[in-house]
Amino acid sequence: MIRSLVMKHKNCSFFTSNKGFTLLEILMVIILIGIVAATAVMFIGNILEQQSVDLTLKDMQNLNHAIVGNPDLVEGGVRNSFGYTGDMGALPANLTALILQGGQLGWRADTGFGGLTNLGTGAGWRGPYVEDKQDDSGTYLALLDGWGRLYSYDAATGRVGSAGSNGVFGGFAAPDADDIIYPQTSVGTILGTVSGRVTNPNGGSIQAPPATNNVTIYAPPPVGAVNLTTYTGATDANGYYTITNVPIGKHKLSVTVGGTTADRAVTALPSATTNMDIVFSTAMTIPDITDVTSFTATPVSTSTIRLDWSPPVTTNTDNSALWDLKGYNIYKGLAVNPTSLYAFLPNTQTSGTVSYIDSNATYFNTYNYRITAVNTSGIESNYSANVSTLGVYGSASIFQTSGASIWNTSCIQFQVKNYSSANIAVANNTVTWSGGPGGYKIAVSTAGQPACPATGAAGCTASGVSVNNAYTLNANGGNIGYITVSFFTNSNNCNNTQAINASNNPYLGFNNNAYIIGDTNNGLR
Length: 525
Known about the structure:
Blueprint: H1 2-10, H2 13-16, H3 23-68, E1 74-75, E2 78-79, H4 83-88, E3 108-109, E4 122-123, E5 152-154, E6 159-162, E7 180-182, E8 191-199, E9 215-223, E10 227-233, E11 240-247, E12 249-257, E13 260-268, E14 273-275, E15 278-279, E16 296-299, E17 305-309, E18 325-333, E19 341-346, E20 354-358, E21 366-375, E22 387-390, E23 394-399, E24 409-416, E25 429-435, E26 441-443, E27 457-458, E28 460-465, E29 470-476, E30 481-487, E31 514-517
Parallel strand pairs: 8-14, 8-15, 24-31
Antiparallel strand pairs: 1-2, 3-4, 5-6, 6-7, 8-11, 9-10, 9-12, 12-13, 16-17, 17-20, 18-19, 18-21, 21-22, 23-30, 24-29, 25-28, 25-30, 26-27, 26-29
């Protein structure tokens, strides 16, 4: 069986043909193989080229983050990556500066620059900012592109360039078609703005002294070995400040009010404004108040008392300049050391005597006053010493209560009596004798009596009448009249007379009966 099969196959043409591949067929196969090989080489080349491009772009991005930081890295919702520029305050002069410190000042925290607080801020080189691995020739691998060539760098814009596959770099201004530049234009501004408001514990605004910057940001670049560059601003009348052109990064911001300084860490973002408000948790400064000896209270009429004092000295109690005096709080009460605010007097002067008129006084009431100085931030000084005064400026008059007239020569004796140490303490008074129709004729009888005109004058006004001394006026005929005692503490004349009911006052007598003006039975109130 097998045999017969073999014999049948042998008779087939397949086994009997001696024909091979023709030359054309072989050439076609070779051409096909070449085409496939060329295609494979081209494909593999494109892959390798793209890998070089991708590697270059990745390296460029890493270099960019090393220069200006990675904006996607945040902490507590705030960007915290600013690279070399955030530490040094400027773009690096070359890419090697990212790896080698060289002559660049090393990193120092704020305490190293004389700061009293360490807020995690400072300045100086703290690289390397990229990997510092080297090839056999000593070239840093981080500075080679995907084709093994050194990157180009534009220090003015912070851009990094690669010559691409052809190895020829056309430059940042006119790059070749295969050149790679990152970023395309510039790293952008490396400066930001910081603004905010400064207030006191009561919410009041804090204004900077005239021609003075009270807000300072300490940021790179370092100036020498011990100082940072300062960027300053001043708070306005509402407590607001703005500081521009601050290098990006995390820096120390200080606000000084009087002798107190508050420090905060603030982050400046590129081409953006960062808000930083500061509220002082303790009183910053207290305006100094004048010495108590210059604070006086003086009655000037039957219903007014004048307060006088000198302005605060030109410095606060912490020896800082007093530039923001807003005015004075005036405290008033019947009790000593009043604490109820009575009035506010705006500041209008820095020298001379400051005066305030209290028009709500009643004579023979004792009033107590204290004052404080207040600055524009609402900070109040300590109380001044208490001063008190009796509202005794004015007049009191007593009508004749017996006898229709005086015949011949009669004397009227009177005395200004101080029954209470708090009343009628004025030492210099005026006594006026007035009459009705026809008037009285007054004459001096003995030495020491009031200085009245000679006999025959129509009335008498005597000044210089003292407390607790007795006086006599001699009357010579006339009709019913009265005497008026005017109390005053200065050279002004009294403009008001007040009639007093006889039932509430001592008796007015004639013919050597003494008449006493005092506070018995609530007299002269």
